Structures are given as C-alpha cells and as structure tokens.
C-alpha cells in the first residue's frame, strides 16, 4: 500500500485564522494519506477545524486564514505551489468539493444545464456546447434527476435535488478527490439516506477518493472505511471504521462521541453528551487539549501534550490509551 501514490497527502498541516483575539489555531499539525477508491471520514464537534481543513485542501481559505505549516499534495502535486491558472484547472478536474449548503454553491440565475455546461466548457476549450449539454444530461441521470430539470433554476428544485446537482457538478470532470463537507446535513433523514446511497453507488463506479466531513458518528462509520477524529484542530485518533465500531478501546474523546450517539430503549431516547466545551483555539489548554473534559486525565495529561503514536491498528494521541482504555 505504501508505494502507491496517495490521492491526498497531508503532511504536518496547520492553519490559523488571524482574529482580533489572536491567532485561532483551527488546524494543528495534522497528517493523513488517502488512497484511490477509499472513503475517509472526518468527524468532530462543531468548531474542531473540519471545514477549515477541507477548504485548505481546496486552497479556498478565507482571507484571514493562512496555511502556517505543512504541505498538501493532491495526486502528488503540492496544491500551494500551483499558479492561479493551474489551480483553476486543478480544481474540478483533480479535486472537487461539495459544500454544506447547495443553495450557496449554485448560481440562482442560471439553469442547471447552464451551470453544468459551464464547468465542462471552462475546462475544455475544445468541447462543443452540444457535447457539453449531452454530458450534462448524462450527469443528471447518474445522480437520478430527471433530465427535464436541465432547464430548471435552483429555486425550482427541492433541497435534495439541489444537493444532487451539486454532487453532479463536483464529479463532472472525474476528479480523483472529492471533499464532501456535511453534504446532507440540511436535509431530512429520508432524503439524506437516498443521497448517501447515491454517493456510495457513484463512488463504487468512479473509484475516486472521498474525504467525508461530518459530525454524525454513525453516518461516517457506516460510509467510510477509515475515520479521523478531530479535536481542537488535531487528529486525536485515526483508525479503520470496523475497529472503531467493534473495539471498546478508544481515545477518551472518541469514547465520548460514541456515548453521545442516541440510544433507543423501550420508550426513550437517551443521549449522553460530553461534559464541558471545546477549548478556545486562541489559547489552547496546556498538555492534552482534551484534558479539561477528560474523565481519566492525570497530571501528565495536564502538563505534556501527547505525541501521535501507532498502537494496534490505530494512530492515537493519548497518554493513557494502554492504561485506562481496556
Ligand atoms: N473566518 C474566520 N475567522 C476566525 N476564526 C474562524 C473563521 N472561520 C472559522 N474560524 C474558527 O476556526 C475554528 C474551526 O472552524 P471550522 O469551521 O473549521 O470547524 P468545523 O469543525 O468545520 O465546525 P462546523 O462543524 O461547525 O462547521 C473555530 O474555532 C472557528 O470559530
């Protein structure tokens, strides 16, 4: 596996936001490789840095954000060494992103057909408009939308249909990497399920790699083969999803996330939240950033930040993994 070229390679990536309060350490020294034909889930509470990392990979960071260290390679190319023009070509054809809100991703004054045709024509100057229209129709069929909707405007479609259009646009140029940032969060459960099934189906055929961002633990563990758990900008546990669900030994934060999955009993739904709040990313706690919320934390956790270690079949950032987790 190691000698294959990863589709995505993150090496010690850190991203900070310049803010009036100081530098917000949104992503803090993360490394990860994703190979073709795999889905990797990125889970964490709100504010843990998931979207910032997704945007950083796409080189779409906000103006006040900087990649403070590390390299991001997609198909072996350092995304931050590309010229503006190269980057424009690289996006969509090598890497694409599906954002949370389809409504914001689509242009309200263009028909679905025009928006898809635009993607083709702007990347392939030799393609005829007629050929692009044909491809647009095929794409809608792939995402199970009646091609009659080619002439629809975004506001004429349901939320689920709009999100399918966004997915169609993302995969239009057969990118090797698709980042999906909570692509179904705004949708009801039934629509969410049908879109997830569609994503799985298309991924199986196209074999691209997906980085699937979500705060929904059950959803990600079902969809992804590997999962990275993010806390305060760091990957505190990275493992395959089978071991994640089967094993009882986890990072204490992962354990908390699993306990927070709603449990259905006879006539009750119980949810056990993680006590406390995520830390202030301008002034991280000393030692392990999770220690103020961790039920096992000891003096070492308060003083020394744990290094990421490979233990059993996971990468884990916890001093106490071997002692209290079994
Ligand atoms: N433009 C910005 N300026 C300053 N800080 C920001 C900015 N955007 C995000 N942040 C901060 O960066 C941190 C990470 O935010 P990010 O949106 O990446 O988290 P997330 O895990 O994707 O959360 P969510 O699930 O709510 O989208 C948060 O503390 C957030 O407040």
Automatic annotation (TrEMBL):
Tell me where on the tree of life, at the top rank, the source sits: Bacteria
Q: Which family does it belong to?
A: Belongs to the ABC transporter superfamily.
Which protein, by its recorded name, is this?
A: ABC transporter ATP-binding protein
CDD domains under this entry? ABC_NikE_OppD_transporters
Record Pfam families: ABC_tran, oligo_HPY
The chain positions of domain ABC transporter read 8-257
What would be an example GO MF term here? Answer: ATP binding
Q: Which UniProt keywords apply?
A: ATP-binding, Nucleotide-binding, Transport
Which Gene3D superfamilies does the UniProt record give? P-loop containing nucleotide triphosphate hydrolases (3.40.50.300)
Q: Does the keyword Transport apply?
A: yes
Ranges in coiled-coil conformation? none
Which PROSITE patterns does the protein's record reference?
Answer: ABC_TRANSPORTER_1, ABC_TRANSPORTER_2
* Keyword Transcription regulation assigned: no
GO BP annotations listed? peptide transport
């Amino acid at each position: 596996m190691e000698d294959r070229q990863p589709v995505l390679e993150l090496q010690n990536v850190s991203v900070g936001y310049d803010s009036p309060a100081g530098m917000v350490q949104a992503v803090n020294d993360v490394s990860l490789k994703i190979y073709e034909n795999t889905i990797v889930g990125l889970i964490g509470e709100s504010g843990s840095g998931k979207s910032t990392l997704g945007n950083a990979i796409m080189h779409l960071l906000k103006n006040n954000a900087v990649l403070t260290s590390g390299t991001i390679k997609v198909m072996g190319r350092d995304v931050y060494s590309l010229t503006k023009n190269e980057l424009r070509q690289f996006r969509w054809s090598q890497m694409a992103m599906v954002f949370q809100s389809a409504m914001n991703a689509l242009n309200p004054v263009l028909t679905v057909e025009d928006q898809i045709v635009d993607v083709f024509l702007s990347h392939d100057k030799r393609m005829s408009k007629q050929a692009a229209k044909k491809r647009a129709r095929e794409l809608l069929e792939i995402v199970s939308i009646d091609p009659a909707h080619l002439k629809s405007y975004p506001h004429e479609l349901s939320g689920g249909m709009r999100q399918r259009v966004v997915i169609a646009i993302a995969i239009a140029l057969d990118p090797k990497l698709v980042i999906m940032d909570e692509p179904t969060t705004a949708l009801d459960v039934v629509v969410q399920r049908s879109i997830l099934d569609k994503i799985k189906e298309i991924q199986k055929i196209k074999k691209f790699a997906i980085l699937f961002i979500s705060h929904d633990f059950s959803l990600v563990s079902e969809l992804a083969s590997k999962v990275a758990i993010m806390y305060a900008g760091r990957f505190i546990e990275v493992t395959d999803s089978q071991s994640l669900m089967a094993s009882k030994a986890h990072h204490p934060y992962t354990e908390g996330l699993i306990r927070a999955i709603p449990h259905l009993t006879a006539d009750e739904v119980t949810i056990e939240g993680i006590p406390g709040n995520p830390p202030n990313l301008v002034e991280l706690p000393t030692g392990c950033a999770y220690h103020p919320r961790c039920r096992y934390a000891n003096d070492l956790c308060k003083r020394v930040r744990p290094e990421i270690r490979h233990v059993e079949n996971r990468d884990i950032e916890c001093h106490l993994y071997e002692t209290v987790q079994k």
